[in-house]
Structure prediction request, 285 residues.
Amino acid sequence: MNIKDYCYDGDRKFSPKNFNTADTAEYKKKRDGSVRLMENLRKMASLQDKLYAENKESVLIIFQAMDAAGKDSAIKNVMSGMNPHGVSVHDFKSPSSEELEHDYLWRANRALPERGNIGIFNRSYYEDVLVVKVRQLHRFNLPSRCVDDDIFKRRYRQINDYERYLYENGVRIIKLFLNISKDEQKARFLARIENQEKNWKFSDSDIKERTLWDQYQTAYKEAINATSTSYAPWYVIPADKKWFSRVLISEIIVNVLEDIKPQYPVLSKEATALLSEHRQQLLNE
Prediction:
């Protein structure tokens, strides 16, 4: 599988209309994809261990999607082999009263992963150029000088500057847009309604947001094209087949971790000699 087929780094434009949400690359069966997923999970576990031990770079994985695209299940399944001690997950819901008293990047900055760690954002600061844009919420708590027709163009620039800053300070950013079709979203919503065990997943707001489908598709298109860069590219994930989206996501994470090339720290001669002394002391007990 060539992950470049799903990568947008500024060299080409993304359009939802020209994207196959049911794509499964060369995998024709779920079973074949499952084999690859397990291989990638083993690689991720090994690479994460080295990343944590080296304690130099961190990885930020951003999940964005329409409702029912499979963000939660992807996080659960793809990150299942990771050491939870070095992984954090932060859900970005409607901002709290405290968060609204700060700039829109403030709450994201507080949740960034420490060096050697992997941080997962379930939604992110991109909500401020997606739902905020579609719902026209940008006037809330902002002075008039900050609100005009160019507010989102400025936010795209601010996000690009912010992500460049993070990259230049040791944070690798993986941005994932799980792209689901409207028909598949409908099927998943119906499954949530008809299956009592899934009723809790369904919300009135899901239907309200669905009525704005076209506006959200435009907002995603504009945001992705404006913020696709070489240092923080977007990966658009076909999400109609959950099993394939998990394989592709794992492939992308492995690729980034391998590019980091994390290594276990090499001890100095003095430290190695001290270890030898401690070993002998334990053997002599």
In short: The first strand starts at residue 7 and ends at 8.
